[in-house]
Each structure stands twice: as C-alpha cells, then as structure tokens.
Amino acid sequence: MEGPPEGRRLSFAAPAPQEGASVSGWPARALVVGASGGIGAALAAALEARGAAVTRLSRSADGLDVTDEASVAAHIGALGGFFDCIIIATGALVIDGAAPEKSIRAVTPDAMRRQFDLNTIGPAMVLKHAWPLIAREGRTVVAVLSARVGSIGDNRLGGWTSYRTAKAAVNQVVRTAAVELARSRRDAILVALHPGTVATRFTADYQDRYDTVPPDAAAANLLAVIDALTPRDTGGFFDWKGDPIPW
Fold it and tell me: From CA 60, how far away is CA 65, in angstroms rounded?
C-alpha cells in the first residue's frame, strides 16, 4: 500500500463507479460503533435516511464496552455477513472527570491510561474483531473518528498531552491496519477522520473557544468525505472538508 498522495485533497465530484460510490444506494449495510453519542447517532440517522440497513452498537444501548476486549468480541462477533461501511465513533475528551491537561506538569499515569484505553485500544479492538465483516472484494469504507489535535506535525499549542497522545496513537493503529488490509482486500479503504468541533456533550465546555457545528451537519460533512474516498486514500488522515492532515 502506497497510501494517499502527499497533500491530496479529496474531490467531491461524483466518483467513478470503479473508484467510489454515489450517495444513492450506498452503503447497503452499515455498522456504527458508538451510535449513542452525538456524532455516532447523527451518522447512523443519516445513513438510514439514505436507505442503508444500519446496525448500531454502543455502551449505553447495548452494553458494548470498547475498553473490554471480551465485550468487543462478544458484540462484534455476534454480527454476520459483510458491511459496506463501518464507522468507529467512540471516544471521549473528558474521562472520569479528568479534563485535558494545560501542561505536561499536570499529566498523571491514571488519566493517560484511561485515555489510551478508550481512545486508542478501544478502536484497535473494534478493528481487530470487525476484520471478518469486511468483504475481500467490493468497496468497503472503514472510518475511525480521530481528532486534529492528534496530529504531531500540526501541534503548535502544546497542552492536552494525554488526549493528543492517545489520538496520535490511534492514527498509527489506523495507518498500520490499512497496510495490512490492503494486502487481502484491495478495494477496502481504512481512514482516520477529524469531524471538527461538534456541538455535543463531548465538547460542551470548549464550544466557546472553537467554531462548532451541530451533529447532523457534522455527519453530512463526514459522509461527503467518505463518499469521495478511493482505495488510494486508504491509510490517510482527513478532516471534515476532505483536506489531508499531517501526521
């Protein structure tokens, strides 16, 4: 796998049938993990509005705990057949009351460990157990919601060490898994996506500092990016506008 061309911005023109998929009729079957969250619920609803058969999984509705591999194996393993689109929309910025650190001096092992459990290891376990749900032929898009602050190259402000590091790590998980996926499923696409700042409980304490969009708008933006992806984009990291983000 060569990965996406450096600096390649996604084209939102209707893709050719052999490269991408139009909105109409795609995906036929989708899986949204983290479907009870603001972005996950909006993505599931938007996919259903297209006519997709959507399977929703979440902790609050189904008891799926992505920090527990046995839970992931049980819930994902109970699914059958193949999915055209798999979106992993789990994660949190504030975990057990531990807000993002303003300085490296505020980092604690427990807070960093919890960030990794949820934001890095969780998506990795979902990818591990969802592998059999990806067909060997035909277009499948697997998208993991990451965050721009996980970019090492784009970090000019410092702070938020645990969250940034966990997101940088999940980006590596995506990149590595995409290399492996391309060996047996040449039409499949695995990417990390930055949704922007979305008006949910996840960002409630930070919305006055950044431009925010409602979940349904974020879902529309992300699906436009997903629609425009082709196999040469696999292993990439893109924002909600389709622009590549540096690692």
Answer: 9
Q: For residue range 45-67, list pLDDT tens digits in order.
A: 999 999 999 999 999 999 999 99
Classify domain 29-239 at the CATH superfamily level.
NAD(P)-binding Rossmann-like Domain (3.40.50.720)
Strand runs labelled E in 70-211: 85-88, 140-145, 188-194, 197-198
pLDDT tens-digit profile of 99-111? 999 999 999 999 9
> Residue 173, Cα to own-chain centre: how many angstroms?
11
Give the C-alpha distances (Å, rounded to integers) separating 165 from 57, 110, 216.
Answer: 26, 14, 28
Name the residue ranges covered by the structural domains of the chain. Answer: 29-239
How far apart CA 198 and CA 223 sit, in angstroms, is: 15
Reported as a single tens digit per residue, the pLDDT across 149-195 is: 999 999 999 999 999 999 999 999 999 999 999 999 999 999 999 99
